[in-house]
Write a structure and sequence with these properties.
Elements (H helix, E strand, L loop, with lengths): L12 E10 L2 E11 L4 E5 L6 H9 L6 E6 L2 E2 L10 E4 L11 H10 L5 H14 L15 H13 L5 E5 L7 H18 L2 E6 L2 H7 L2 E6 L2 E6 L1 H6 L4 H6 L4 E9 L2 E4 L2 E4 L10 E6 L5 E3 L9 E11 L3 E7 L8 E6 H7 L6 E5 L6 E4 L8
Parallel strand pairs: 3-8, 3-9, 6-7, 7-8
Antiparallel strand pairs: 1-2, 1-4, 4-5, 9-10, 11-12, 11-14, 12-13, 14-20, 15-19, 16-17, 16-19, 17-18
Bound molecules: adenosine-5'-triphosphate.
The site of adenosine-5'-triphosphate has 12 residues, from strand 2 and helix 1.
Length: 371
């Protein structure tokens, strides 16, 4: 990011070499990250990867073991939460049950010594902003989970914080409400422009809401990128495997653009692995292309049999078996059109192509799930 003058824009939030130890266990191992002003960033990763620990360190709720945090040019590394400038929403709604909705939202504002009328006006604006006008007199228990979470959001932004922190805010809600609230939170964030960090283990949530996703695993950052980069250009096998569906095939590297799958030589994306190295080829089911006619002579084409067809609404996922794929098989997503045109069904034989530019090559034989 650069300004019209050409200098790099200064990040709004800067995390430098952050380490967090719990006894001998390192929950965060040397994390560095820049977040720009107004960005919506998601921390995404499996349970225990350290995303909540990182969020809590940024909030000052847990102190890091070493490393620093800067916000708006200010070193906040050692400040208590009360002296940092953020609003936070947790997974559990954490509203005060004995206060009305309006008093919940007004909570922080009341401590500013504002006039009653001014507070009432701001609370009305905030309730309007989260789509719950006229609900101020109710108590939290009279609202649905989704509504309570919107109130929690209103409360978190009431003081116009520089930073909005969201710790799995949607995970306690049912699927329909969750998807709806995704859009609402995202559009609210755009309108008020607050720099936002959200922790989630839900890849779809991260892909649909984030400007940039930080994928974490075992206390390290695996990749930082836009949703499209993370999905289309995964930097590691872990990222490739964690986000979306991915076929993985064990191969041996031949040269910078070729690998051998059993007897078959495949052209793949350029990589830097050494010839002879064990590697994993990864391709998304939707990148597997059915070929009309019989073109197995060309590169990267395989004769396969459909062993199972799985209906997934807008598309079908076919399990393809073929000598080259061994027991693993291959998953391929076919649109309804392709199904009709090619007459695909269980037992059918066909040819598929694995396009070289969609064949990612990663070091090693597989993903190490826990360490
Ligand atoms: P989840 O989605 O399950 O919350 P997470 O990615 O947010 O996972 P963290 O809560 O940040 O994970 O925890 C990271 C690691 O640190 C985990 O292995 C966890 O067991 C450990 N951990 C977290 N808090 C403590 C603590 N207070 N004492 C000891 N270990 C802890």
């Amino acid at each position: 990011t650069s300004t019209p003058g050409g200098e790099a824009a200064r990040p709004f939030l800067r995390v430098c070499n952050l380490v967090k130890a719990f006894g001998p266990f390192l929950a965060l191992k040397d994390i560095s990250l820049d977040v720009m002003e107004g960005e919506f960033v998601c921390f995404l990763g499996p349970s225990g990867c350290g995303k909540t620990t990182l969020l809590r360190a940024i909030a000052g709720l847990d102190l890091q073991t070493s490393g620093g945090i800067e916000q708006a040019g200010r070193d906040i590394s050692l400040l208590p939460p009360s002296q940092r400038d953020f609003g936070i929403v947790f997974q559990s709604y954490a509203l005060f049950p004995n206060l009305t909705v309006a008093r919940n939202v007004a909570y922080g504002l009341e401590s500013l010594g504002l006039k009653r009328a001014e507070i009432d006006r701001r609370v009305a604006d905030l309730l309007e902003l989260v789509g719950l006008p006229d609900q101020g007199a109710k108590y939290p228990s009279q609202l649905s989970g989704g509504q309570q979470q919107r109130i929690a959001l209103a409360r978190a932004i009431a003081m116009s914080p520089g930073l909005l922190l969201l710790d799995e805010p949607l995970s306690a809600l049912d699927a329909k409400v969750r998807v709806h609230l995704r859009h609402e939170i995202k559009s609210l964030q755009r309108r008020i422009g607050v720099t936002t960090i959200m922790v989630t283990h839900d890849q779809e949530e991260a892909l649909s809401m984030a400007d940039r996703i930080v994928v974490m695993n075992h206390g390290v950052i695996e990749q930082v990128g836009t949703p499209a980069e993370i999905y289309r250009e995964p930097a590691t096998l872990f990222v490739a495997d964690f986000i979306g569906a991915m076929n993985k095939l064990p191969v041996r590297v031949e040269d910078a653009e070729h690998a051998r799958l059993g007897e078959t030589r495949l052209q793949c994306r350029p990589h830097a692995l050494d010839p002879g190295a064990e590697a994993t080829l990864a391709i998304r089911p939707e990148d597997v292309v059915p070929v009309e006619g019989n073109g197995t002579g060309s590169a990267n084409r395989f004769a396969v049999t459909i062993s199972e067809m799985e209906f997934l609404g807008s598309f079908w996922r076919a399990w393809l078996a073929g000598p080259a794929f061994g027991a693993a098989g291959l998953e391929a997503d076919f649109s309804v059109n392709a199904i009709r045109r090619l007459g695909l069904e269980e037992g059918k034989q066909l040819t598929v192509e694995l396009p070289a530019d969609r064949l990612h090559v990663f070091a090693g034989a597989g993903v190490d799930e826990d360490g």
